[in-house]
Write a structure and sequence with these properties.
The complex is a heterodimer of chains A (306) and B (521).
Chain A lengths: L1 H29 L7 H19 L2 H25 L4 H19 L25 H6 L3 H19 L1 H11 L1 H6 L4 H27 L11 H11 L4 H24 L5 H19 L3 H7 L13
Helix pairs in contact in A: 1-6, 1-9, 1-10, 1-11, 2-3, 2-4, 2-9, 2-10, 3-4, 3-9, 6-7, 10-11, 11-12
Chain B lengths: L8 E12 L2 E12 L3 E5 L6 H8 L7 E6 L2 E3 L4 H7 L1 E4 L11 H8 L6 H14 L15 H14 L4 E5 L7 H16 L3 E6 L2 H7 L2 E6 L2 E6 L6 H9 L19 E10 L9 E9 L3 E5 L6 H9 L10 E3 L2 E2 L5 H6 L2 E4 L14 H9 L4 H4 L8 H15 L15 H13 L5 E5 L7 H16 L3 E5 L3 H7 L2 E6 L2 E2 L3 E2 L5 H8 L6 H8 L1
Parallel strand pairs in B: 3-8, 3-9, 6-7, 7-8, 13-18, 13-19, 16-17, 17-18
Antiparallel strand pairs in B: 1-2, 1-4, 4-5, 9-10, 11-12, 11-14, 14-15, 19-20, 19-21
Helix pairs in contact in B: 3-4, 3-5, 4-5, 11-13, 13-14, 14-15
Classes of the chains: A mainly alpha (306), B alpha/beta (521).
Chain lengths: 306, 521
């Protein structure tokens, strides 16, 4: 029984950073902007979070720093692509490369240093209930944040007027501009929100997952988050499903490798990717729904003629 | 100079100028719109109508000039500000969001916080009171062009504007839908609202407009009362000289002529959720005749053209036959080699590669059919002969350009269209299929293109023209078929065709589609 609970807990821990980063990117892409710099913003959040936590001794300050660093880093992307109308793909890729390099440089003195860990939730009485106690009341705070964030983004996008406006900009920025909607302002806010989320996801890595600093510790999670958004056809609950499928198969194959089953380890390592793609493709079979949810102006620079 | 404002003028424009690079798109425009009038803005493509309207709606900023609203000088710096003043706009290329519902689209332009359901109810009530029934829950991507326009109009009316600008509103409507629109406009005028009506359709302007301002090359060339003018005199003001009428020589012996293009039971499933399926289309075009295909945009014409041209291949090789041979499984180049030529609807990106020279574009479409003269031994391009062929086409079609062999994108739309049509005509194809031959082409050039198509047919070719412009089809066709919802009617000989009959077919009245649509809407 304990083993099952522990496996479920590790799955949640593996899925949480993917979910947070992907939900942030989902909002960005719903506004019609493609930010391929998730990996870079994430690793910057990780190093910023670790550094602040290490220097102050407070994981909470670390967390805040992770969010701020991610948001600031995305602001760079926003200025380039939105104000200067540079190519979003190229700018996003350079953001990732810059983030990986810069974080390595900033983090040289942090390597091997003991980090601080965000404590798990501990509600006296509730958290010690067998099985459910740990799963529902005893996880790290960001687990709850990630679930709450998904619900909040769902509500925001599909239940509020501002969310409708954001989706309309993603569908056609030309039409939105013609209606007098401030396209650039909305996109700035969306990109910064996405950056903050990616930073927070990075903070999860260096303050919860493995409370230490290792160069390139994001290990491609930003790319997985990006892929999740597309395969989830820009729907929040599907992103959640995708992140957890990925987490589950990831943990599952680690255990399988530990048991030494006679399957090449390379194949097992690729399973999480395969499984996530297959499942998400299956649930987005409905072409019509997919079309309705795809931001039609994704990746196109917007320059209002004046 | 602002002392003598007429109080009854809702909008007054003085010396409004907009310069793009070296081109004065609008050059010292003066315009007055009184309360409760329908004011026409006339002009050819490129005369500056759209630029002027964009400045009035705040999406372009004028270089100089003044705008007075109710006698007050105003600067309209954004569409939001225009809406606040009371200016509403119905766009030519609709500014709707396809992935959202009608109600959501309307809600987006109303800056109040009322819930979508309340807005939907209000929109539904207003739409029925104006006789423009609308289902607020429907997805815009599923709607016909006419229905989309209703959304635009209702959206505009819900903002209770004093001035409504309509940019080419009838270019996508059936004649019956247009009648409905005119009734609405007359009712709005009776309610004291002003309307700025942009069109190049002179009969419409004569019918509903109280005054007209005519633009040519960015300048106001005249004001008039359209009711006292004839269509010909209005056209003279717009164009600056007489427009040559297209002459359609009677076709002889068509009944016995062989069919060069035959389409048998052409059926196609929709490739995307918003595409139209083609349903069992049958048509044959004989040597010597021009067949026109009418229809409201988005009823399957694009899908039909793709199937006929070979952009999309057919399962059944016999569903498209060119000069008596099965062509259903043959590629575009293969169909060209069988003697057919195609002019697609989109000029840039489809009909021509924008960043390539005209001569290169010529080579791209004719390297196979004119292999001997354009490509030498070892596959080397004979640049000299391609260049001289391009010059021949440029001269034949009177293409106006800034350099001897410019990039396609450097030409104006109308001139590029002349080149693309000329490129295909130059081959003297035995089957010619053209989609929207004169879209965005000025009256003089359009007449030239139409005349050339008729002459091609009379010299023994089969010509198929797909167009949304009914006047054009009546001018050049020997028979007109109508496409509605992926079905093609039997061709009506031109002697039996009337605007009303074609219009009813365009609305799907005969097979019973119109009633059906209303019920499900």
């Amino acid at each position: 029984m304990d083993i099952t609970v522990n496996i479920l807990l590790t799955i949640a821990t593996a899925a949480t950073p993917l979910l947070i980063a992907a939900i942030g990117e989902l909002v960005v892409e719903r506004s019609g902007v493609l930010n391929l710099g998730v990996e870079g913003m994430m690793i910057m959040g990780a190093v910023g979070g670790f550094g602040a936590g290490y220097l102050t001794g407070s994981p909470w300050i670390g967390l805040l720093a992770a969010i701020v660093v991610g948001a600031l880093f995305s602001l760079l992307f926003a200025v380039m692509t939105l104000s200067l109308a540079t190519n979003q793909v190229a700018t996003g890729l350079s953001l990732t490369l810059l983030g990986l390099g810069l974080s390595g440089m900033i983090g040289t003195s942090f390597v091997g240093q003991p980090g601080v860990r965000l404590p798990n939730l501990d509600i006296p009485g509730l958290s010690s209930i067998p099985v459910v106690g740990k799963l529902i009341f005893g996880q790290d705070p960001l687990f709850y944040v990630s679930i709450g964030l998904t619900a909040a983004v769902m509500w925001f996008l599909f239940r509020t007027r501002t969310g409708l406006t954001l989706r309309s900009i993603g569908d056609s920025h030309v039409s939105a501009h013609a209606l007098g909607i401030k396209v650039i302002r909305y996109r700035y806010l969306a990109v910064i929100f996405g950056g903050a989320c990616a930073g927070l996801a990075g903070g999860h890595l260096s303050l919860v997952y493995t409370p230490q600093w290792v160069e390139n510790m994001s290990a491609g999670r930003g790319w997985i988050a990006l892929a999740l958004v597309v395969f989830a056809s820009w729907r929040p609950w599907r992103v959640l499903a995708g992140a957890y499928i990925f987490g589950a198969v990831w943990i599952g194959q680690l255990h399988a490798q530990a048991f030494g089953i006679p399957v090449p380890s390379q194949f097992l390592s690729s399973l999480p990717y395969l499984a996530t793609i297959v499942v998400l493709v299956l649930i987005s079979r409905n072409k019509r729904l997919t079309m309705m949810n795809t931001p039609a102006s994704l990746g196109q620079p917007f320059v209002p003629d004046r | 100079m602002s002392a003598n404002h007429d109080r009854a003028n809702l909008l007054e424009v003085r010396g409004l100028t907009k310069i793009f690079g070296t081109l004065a798109a609008c050059n010292h425009i003066d315009l007055n719109i009184a309360k409760g009038e329908i004011h026409a803005l006339l002009g050819e493509n490129g005369a500056g109508k759209s630029t002027l309207v964009k400045m009035l709606f705040g999406s372009l900023e004028p270089n100089s000039g003044e705008i007075f609203w109710n006698g007050q000088a105003v600067r309209i710096t954004s569409p939001g500000l225009a809406k606040k003043l009371g200016i509403g706009m119905v766009f030519q290329h609709f500014s709707l969001f396809e992935a959202l519902t009608a109600a959501e689209n309307i809600a987006l332009s109303l800056n109040d916080g009322s819930p979508i359901s309340a807005i939907a109810a209000k929109a539904r009530a207003l739409s029925y009171s104006y006789g423009l029934p609308l289902d607020p829950e429907s997805l815009v991507g599923d709607l016909s062009v006419g229905e989309r326009q209703r959304i635009e109009i209702i959206r505009c009316l819900l903002q209770t504007p004093q001035l409504i600008i309509l940019d080419e509103p009838t270019s996508v409507l059936t004649p019956q839908e247009a009648d409905k629109l005119f009734e609405t406009l007359e009712r709005l005028r009776a309610e004291g609202k002003s309307i700025l009506y942009i069109s190049h359709r002179l009969e419409e302007v004569k019918r509903i407009c109280d005054r007209a301002t005519v633009l040519r090359h960015g300048k106001v060339v005249g004001h008039c009362n359209p009711r006292q003018e004839t269509a010909a005199s209005l056209a003279r003001m717009m164009v600056g000289n007489e427009v040559k009428a297209v002459v359609r020589a009677p076709a002889k012996g068509i009944e016995t002529a062989p069919a060069l293009l035959e389409i048998h039971g052409l059926t196609r499933k929709p490739a995307t959720p918003f595409a139209i399926p083609l349903k069992n289309i049958n048509l044959s075009v004989r040597a010597g005749e021009v067949i026109g295909i009418a229809g409201v945009a988005g009823n399957g014409q694009g899908e039909f053209f793709e199937s006929v041209s070979g952009e999309v291949l057919q399962q059944d090789p016999g569903s498209v036959r060119i000069r008596g041979k099965d062509a259903g499984g043959v590629s575009i180049t293969g169909r060209r080699l069988m003697g057919a030529a195609f002019v697609p609807e989109e000029r840039l990106g489809h009909g021509a590669a924008p960043r390539m020279k005209l001569s290169e574009n010529l080579l791209l479409s004719r390297h196979a059919t004119d292999g001997k003269s354009f490509v030498g031994s070892g596959g080397m391009v004979r640049n000299g002969s391609v260049y001289s062929a391009a010059q021949r086409i440029i001269a034949a079609m009177d293409v106006r350009k800034s350099a001897p062999d410019p990039e396609a994108a450097a030409l104006s739309g109308g001139n590029l269209q002349k080149f693309i049509v000329g490129r295909e005509l130059d081959r003297k194809p035995s089957v010619m299929v053209v989609n929207q031959p004169t879209w965005g082409v000025d009256a003089g050039a359009a007449a030239h293109i139409r005349q050339a198509l008729i002459e091609l047919a009379r010299s023994g070719s089969a010509v198929l023209v797909i167009s949304q412009d009914l006047d054009e089809l009546f001018e050049l066709s020997d028979a007109i078929a109508v496409m509605h919802n992926g079905e093609l009617s039997a061709p009506l000989p031109i002697a039996e065709a009337t605007f009303e009959r074609i219009g009813l077919l365009m609305g799907g009245a005969e097979p019973g589609h119109a009633e059906h649509r209303m019920e499900t809407a």
